[in-house]
Amino acid sequence: MSTTLTISIDKLLNHTPLTGEEFTVILKNNSEELRSRLAEEADQVRREHFGNRIFIRGLIEFTNYCKNDCLYCGIRCSNRNLERYRLSYDEILSCCQQGYELGFRTFVLQGGEDLYFTDERMVDIVSAIREKYPDCAITLSLGERSKDSYQALFDAGADRYLLRHETATRTHYEMLHPASMSYTNRMDCLRALKEIGYQVGCGFMVGSPGQTREMLAADLLFIQNFRPHMVGIGPFISHKDTPFADRPDGTLEDTLLLLSILRLMQPTLLLPSTTALGTISPTGREQGILAGANVVMPNLSPVSVRKQYALYDNKICTGDESAQCIQCMSNRMENIHFKIAIDRGDSPDLKLR
Ligand code: SAH
């Protein structure tokens, strides 16, 4: 093993900051041996902070209308082969009710950037959930909005916000997005969310078109400096009705290595084992947990709309009722000797403040 690789791994195991070159060296040496070593260490570190508890988040995909045209995404506005839907206020609340009965204490409202959901409408929805479920966390994932809008939603009772940065390399960002979108604005949004006091999640796709090891290292450096509460990563998976239809998917191996690295970089991080990971491999989510993840996000959307929230091809769990999803997830976790935790699962870092 080269000395730089040994030094980089040692730094990671000691949870000390790495340079971009050091991250790159690790990423370029992704072998079965390295993955299992880092996974073992990551698993250990995660157990010290979280035991064998896995947090669950109920994902409500409440609209697939989107004004944006991200080149990788199946719900981009120029995809005309998609039937669009948005859930009503009552439908969203009924998803929460069902979720609450099933043991969820975090609701994640995710959607495309749908102009129908003005601040006024979103504030109404968030306030209603806050009032009905005072013991639950509310996570929003609505894309880019103004700081005032983020503030209004926070004041209405939202606790957390997921906004993947997608890539920390400006030129790469510009390759993945139309000219109407800006890297600077996305990064400004993330900073604003943190300033307001949200628990913030950023993240990126693994193996997105044009991505190099150096770019992944830049993502890790960004995360190291930004210190989010959560990081969502999953493999890029092509969607047939996008300009990236013929691009290869990201790999299970790269995603697993990155999950272990993230766990070691920030031991208390909330790190989901994502649906995309479960889509590229039947045991992807279990492998993600074993590599260091500690969150799963079963779907709470009504079955009637699930197929339409098609960010990528062959997405799993689009035919099952919510009760089946949670049962399946619970079994999967038990099979690998983990246990689903029925609580909000806040970031442990909040207690330190
Ligand atoms: N409009 C919201 C939610 C976007 S969908 C927002 O802007 O944050 C959630 C995430 O799915 C995206 O951030 C992106 O990283 C991921 N995603 C989109 N298309 C994908 C694809 N083809 N393969 C894998 N992940 C994808």
Features:
353 residues; alpha/beta; TIM Barrel; 6-stranded parallel beta sheet; 3-stranded parallel beta sheet; 14 helices; 9 strands; globular; binds S-adenosyl-L-homocysteine
Give an overview in words.
- The chain has one domain: Alpha-Beta Barrel (TIM Barrel), CATH 3.20.20.
- α1 crosses α2, α2 packs across α9 and α3 packs across α10.
- The protein is globular, with a radius of gyration of 19 Å.
- The strands form 2 sheets. Strands 2-3-4-5-6-7 form a 6-stranded parallel beta sheet. Strands 8-1-9 form a 3-stranded parallel beta sheet, covered by helices on one side.
- β2, α4 and β3 form a beta-alpha-beta unit.
- The N and C termini lie far apart (40 Å).
- The protein has 353 residues and is an alpha/beta fold.
- It is 44% helix and 12% strand.
- 46% of the residues are buried.
- Bound molecules: S-adenosyl-L-homocysteine (SAH).
- S-adenosyl-L-homocysteine binds next to loops.
CATH H-level superfamily: Aldolase class I
Named CATH topology? TIM Barrel
Q: Count up the domains.
A: 1
Percentage of residues assigned to helices? 40-55%
Q: If helices are DSSP runs of H or I spanning 4 or more residues, what is the number of helices?
A: 14
Structural class: alpha/beta
Strand order of the largest sheet: 2-3-4-5-6-7
Order of helices and strands: HHHEEHEHEHEHHEHEHHHEHHE
| Known CATH architecture | Alpha-Beta Barrel
Radius of gyration: 19 Å
Give a quick account of the main beta sheet: strands, pairing sense, barrel closure: 6 strands, parallel
Kindly provide the name of the CATH class: Alpha Beta
User: Tally of extended strands?
Assistant: 9
Terminal-residue CA separation: 40 Å
